[in-house]
Amino acid sequence: MPSRLWLAGFLVLLLVAPRLASEFHVTLLNYIGLYSLVALGLVLLTGVGGLTSFGQAAFVGLGAYTTAYLSTAGSLPGWAAAFGGSPWVGLLAGLLLTAAVALVLGLLTLRLSGHYLPLGTIAWGISLYFLFGNLDFLGGHTGMSGIPALSLFGVELKDGRNFYYMIWTAVLAAVWLTHNLLDSREGRAIRALKGGVVMAESMGVDTARSKVVIFLIAALFACISGWLYAHLQRFVNPTPFGLHIGIEYLFMAVVGGAAHVWGALLGAGVITVLKQWLQDWLPKLLGASGNFEMIVFGVMMIFVLQRARDGLWPILTRLIPQRRKQREVPQAEALPKKSVPQAGQVLLEARNVVKRFGGLVANNNMNLTVKAGEIMALIGPNGAGKSTMFNCVSGVDSATEGEVLFCGQVVTQLNSRQIARLGMSRTFQHVRLLPTMSVLENAAIGGHLRGSKGVLPAMLHLERGEEARLLAEAARQVERVGLKESMFEPAGSLALGQQRTLEIARALCADPSLLLLDEPAAGLRYLEKQALAELLRKLRGEGMGILLVEHDMDFVMGLADRVVVMEFGEKIAEGLPDEVQRDPAVLEAYLGGVD
Predict the structure, then answer these.
(1) DSSP 84-108
(2) What's 234's DSSP letter?
(3) Cβ(88)–Cβ(149) below 8 Å
(4) How many other C-beta atoms are found inside a 10 Å radius of the C-beta of residue 73?
(5) CA 387 to chain centre
(6) Which residues have CB under 8 Å from 585's CB, separation 6+?
(7) Burial category of 335 from C-beta neighbours within 10 Å (exposed 0-12, middle 13-18, buried 19 and up)
(8) Does an H or E element contain 427, and which?
(9) Smallest Cα–Cα separation from 517: which of 534, 505, 531?
(10) Nearest CA among 472, 397, 394, 454 for reference residue 427
């Protein structure tokens, strides 16, 4: 977000531009605004959510064609003519139709991953483009004309200078809504998608829902752009809604800065102006006409991907001096907490758990229990099946046989999000944080299930009270694990040991009764391990159950109340730390036997 001074300057320039610029430049600014709306949706979808779409131009077409059809009343059948004729009816109908189409396409397409997702968006983008051109009532490839001008408060917006304010009001409103969304609990859930589905789901984020939400928002922004385009041009045909334009929209988002809201406006401006210049200069320079600008754009894209993968916006913000904001630790009333289980109550029970991956048996008849107010360590050589057991317990993977009970409830077939809601939270063997997000925001992801406000309140900033409580809770947990001094630093700037500690803070934000820690001491220095051990003892004293996987035997044996040892997917020993250390089977597994 730019500083208030620079933002105020930008808004003043936008306000006076139509009065100072020529007709040509006003038209150029109008198109930059239209493209910015689509690119803004792609920033949310691709840059923030990590979902690549080449088909956004088709949603622009849906908005344009819907209002074109409904606002040219003569083309309507008799029963529908009463509802047509008004561009505002066209806007409402376009948004509803686009939302319906995007929901169906999203539910189908967003199940895909890897390169299949962009291929899927290409497929439906091409399909909608040819649909527009082959329907006679939409004018075929010839298109539709006679679209009425917009009228606002009795003023007809026929002139490009007047229409300019309509376009840029819509753009600034979309920027405001998007920025509000990202600065919220729902926004953190969306940003968590880049950290991987496993991490996000384990923190209680419904990743499928979050993907559909940003897909819908991006489609609706594109629809509004199409509606504005239709009433600005007063004519539509399929050409501006083809796949090549969809690629151009994505290009704008990437060049501007795909992970930055204001990057959408910068990218749309740079590409639109550059395209206009190249179309004027290249034919004169080369002495021939053609789409030579596309060659330049291709080279430019390769250069940007190699030299400025984050786009131009971060480079611009580094060049502009900004005053460092004074950040304060959030203060708010505490969130409600779950009742603490009685000491000694069985929290977790695994009964004869078997996990097979094809012919490989990763866990075989595993049994273990964890009680409230105790630390139970799960140890074993590399490849013993400890992390697989963790995944079966936490719902990341389902056990092939056997059952897992949490607080007396069978959770074997529940997913990790459902289990997290019951009061189980975890860390990961390989750190899974959002490196560009602050330490505070990373921790706050763990409190996702402790909030309830949805997307619309977030976009309108009607959830500020809940957001303050979530951030205050995250701040308390960050301070609790000893990372207060780094609270507002990017998580990626922390040392590995600190990142593991941050994962514990994130897990604690969920207010769990059972904490699963996968190698939390890995990468920690001696004093950091002592501080971690002290924290875990304190949590144990508060009645929390802790299941710990760790390779540092000194750390484990000085901390755990009970130890379970695994080898080749099976339990070979269980007991007090001293007993386990003397067990011949354990010595055989770790040391190959002793005399």
Answers:
(1) -S-HHHHHHHHHHHHHHHHHHHHHH
(2) S
(3) no
(4) 16
(5) 26
(6) 565, 567, 572, 573
(7) middle
(8) none
(9) 505
(10) 394
In 61-156, which ranges are E strands?
Answer: 144-145, 151-152, 155-156
Q: Which two tokens stand for residue 363?
A: 């866990």
The tens-digit pLDDT sequence of the chain (595 residues) is 567 788 888 888 888 888 888 899 999 999 999 999 999 999 999 999 989 999 999 999 999 999 999 888 655 555 455 555 678 888 999 999 999 999 999 999 998 887 888 899 999 999 999 999 898 888 888 889 888 888 887 777 788 888 999 999 999 999 999 999 999 999 999 999 988 888 999 999 999 999 999 999 999 999 999 999 999 999 999 999 999 899 999 999 999 998 899 999 999 999 999 888 888 888 878 777 777 777 887 887 788 778 888 888 988 888 876 666 667 777 888 888 888 888 889 999 999 999 998 888 889 999 999 999 999 999 888 888 888 898 899 988 888 999 999 988 999 989 999 999 999 999 988 899 999 999 999 999 999 999 999 999 999 999 999 999 999 999 999 999 889 899 999 999 998 889 999 999 999 999 999 999 998 888 888 888 888 899 999 999 989 999 999 888 888 888 899 999 988 888 888 889 888 888 888 887 765 555 4
Lookup: tokens for 32: 């930059």
The amino acid at residue 251 is F
How far apart CA 358 and CA 264 sit, in angstroms, is 46
Helix (H) or strand (E) holding 38: helix 23-42
Distance between CA atoms of 91 and 152, rounded to whole angstroms?
A: 14
Euclidean distance between CA atoms 67 and 235, whole angstroms: 11
Furthest-apart CA pair in the chain: how many Å?
98
Angle at 226 between CA 225 and CA 229, to 5 degrees: 85
Q: How far apart are CA 552 and CA 524, in angstroms?
A: 11
Q: Is-contact 216 106, C-beta < 8 A?
A: yes
3-state secondary structure at position 498: helix
- Terminal CA-to-CA distance of the chain, rounded, Å? 67
Cα three-residue angle 24-29-30, rounded to 5 degrees: 95
**Amino acid letter for position 204:** G
- Cα separation, 233 vs 146, whole angstroms: 10
Nearest to 483 by CA among 436, 540, 537, 524: 524
